[in-house]
User: What shape does this take?
Amino acid sequence: MATATSKLARELTEVTRDGAPLDGPRPRDVLARALRSRSAALVAQAARAIARGPTPGLGDALRAAYHDLAAARAATLDAGSVAKDAVLEALDRLDDDDAALFAHAAGYVQAERARGRTVDGGARVRARGLLGLARLGHPDFLLLAGAGLGDGDPAVRLAAARALAHRGERDGAALLLLRVAAGDEVADVWTECLHGLFVLAPAFAVRAAEAARHGDDAAARERWRVALGTAPHDDAVEVLAAELAAAARGDERAPVIAALGLSLRPRARALLLELVDGDRPSDAEAALAALAIHRYDDRLVDEVRARVAGDPALEGWFVDRFGVPATRR
Assistant: This one.
């Protein structure tokens, strides 16, 4: 058995070496045999090669490999679900339409022993399943996504939030709203839920953001600003604009200005440009620092350069932050 597995491993390495074409009869045969093997490592290697390909005609073999690995003794055969994750990724890359398989994956739990205790090795499978359902849809999608938002593993909660936003079903906003209101110990999860709300139900996202504004925890307020600064909607910019208008001191305004700098929305950039040539030097300096994040944008650099022209202090800050001359040469 070991000899046959070793021989197959050598064949698999040979046919997948250096980006060789995988659509010929021999590569397909080797990949199919690897997917049928009892070696999770070979299954994962074959699946990754197919995902890079992709290689046509192996969808059935990939689906069979997933079901084999998810069956009895899965923890022994595929600890940590590495191979199942690779198979699901390959199926997703192939635009496989087996929604039932991805729904199974979204609810998959794998109990395995690690350091003398039982742990769940199925989190990456659940995350991959939810992301697959975001593309395909399923009658139980919202149920599975809701369970994902309550999952003990943050990677699954993050995947659930992204899946809901990508799927675009407005009913999913209720789940995201609940998660935003409840909070999450992982900042990225909370941020992704708020972003999804701005995609699905902007008005409710604004309400949720305003409700979260008044916390006393400095770290939570910074998370709040970053979430709004990176949100894909102009309404998030308006929430930050209102926060800026309500802030009097420079040390209160600077973090809000920095958050506006994270945004790619034209409205955010317009606000920052107004601050550059406004009547508050501290705002101008903070706005230049925020805009400098986007110094790869030549058009923006030219616009900022025009705003600072003729003001020695602004020109000095511009040179310091953007790393280019204040005048065109």
About this structure: The mean pLDDT is 91. The chain is about 70% helix and 0% strand.
